């Protein structure tokens, strides 16, 4: 699948659980356009082992995202009822109680497919029956979407590999630094470090417009 970088994030409307326990039926990322950046991340399944560590890690840093004007949104192929049950399960029992940011239900797997993170692919076998090649869950994809609804960064990990929440914050800082100062951020840059003036005429203007 072609990379989504520099393109508008795929649109969707789906059920989600918000505020740690309220189910809504028409959740969409479009509500944030013109208002907030979005870190939209996928995880494989509810009630697993690595996944709760990631969801709790995002919640623990939620103030850092909010002060940067970033909405954090999670998504998996589970139903909204499964999300609700997991959100009502205590952390010491493997649950994610205390997570308050929205968690989208991609039960049809259409959102995972649109974002290019579905670990399996459906295809007909020799008998004409549709079967899935691979796992019917989402890889650990993460997408940073700017206020215009454009994907500016993504990382996709295989199922066993948990992500760094601090790295997600660092990339937000890099994008916002570029937008504010027009300076590009070198390897291992972090907020407060020196960035680079763009020496290629027109590149900064082009990037800011796209």
TrEMBL record:
Annotated keywords: Cytoplasm, Disulfide bond, Oxidoreductase, Peroxidase, Redox-active center
Record has Cytoplasm as a keyword: yes
GO MF, any single term: thioredoxin peroxidase activity
Residues at the catalytic site: 51 (cysteine sulfenic acid (-soh) intermediate)
Name of protein: Thioredoxin peroxidase
The Thioredoxin domain, residue ranges: 3-177
Short name of one Pfam family: AhpC-TSA
Subcellular location: Cytoplasm
Main location: cytoplasm
SUPFAM superfamilies: Thioredoxin-like
Alphabetized Gene3D superfamilies for the sequence: Glutaredoxin
Lineage: superkingdom: Bacteria
Family the entry assigns: Belongs to the peroxiredoxin family. AhpC/Prx1 subfamily.
Keyword Cytoplasm: yes
CDD domains linked: PRX_Typ2cys
One cellular component (GO) term of this entry: cytosol
Function: Thiol-specific peroxidase that catalyzes the reduction of hydrogen peroxide and organic hydroperoxides to water and alcohols, respectively. Plays a role in cell protection against oxidative stress by detoxifying peroxides.
GO terms (BP aspect): cell redox homeostasis; cellular response to stress; hydrogen peroxide catabolic process; response to oxidative stress
Species this chain originates from: Bacteroides coprosuis DSM 18011
């Amino acid at each position: 699948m072609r990379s989504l970088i520099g393109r508008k994030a795929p649109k969707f409307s789906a059920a989600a659980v918000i505020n740690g326990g309220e189910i809504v039926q028409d959740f969409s990322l479009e509500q944030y356009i013109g208002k907030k950046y979005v870190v939209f991340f996928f995880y494989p399944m509810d009630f697993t082992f690595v996944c709760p560590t990631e969801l709790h890690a995002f919640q623990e840093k939620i103030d850092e995202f909010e002060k940067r004007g970033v909405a954090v949104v999670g998504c998996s192929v589970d139903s909204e009822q499964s999300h609700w049950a997991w959100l009502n399960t205590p952390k010491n029992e493997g649950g994610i109680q205390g997570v308050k940011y929205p968690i989208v239900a991609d039960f049809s797997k259409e959102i995972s497919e649109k974002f290019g993170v579905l670990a399996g692919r459906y295809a007909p076998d020799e008998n004409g029956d549709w079967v899935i090649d691979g796992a019917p869950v989402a890889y650990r994809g993460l997408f940073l979407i700017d206020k215009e609804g454009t994907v500016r960064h993504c990382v996709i990990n295989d199922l066993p590999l948990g992500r760094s929440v601090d790295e997600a914050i660092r990339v937000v800082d890099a994008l916002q630094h570029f937008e504010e100062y027009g300076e590009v951020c070198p390897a291992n840059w972090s907020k407060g470090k020196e960035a680079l003036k763009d020496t290629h005429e027109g590149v900064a203007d082009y990037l800011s417009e796209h």
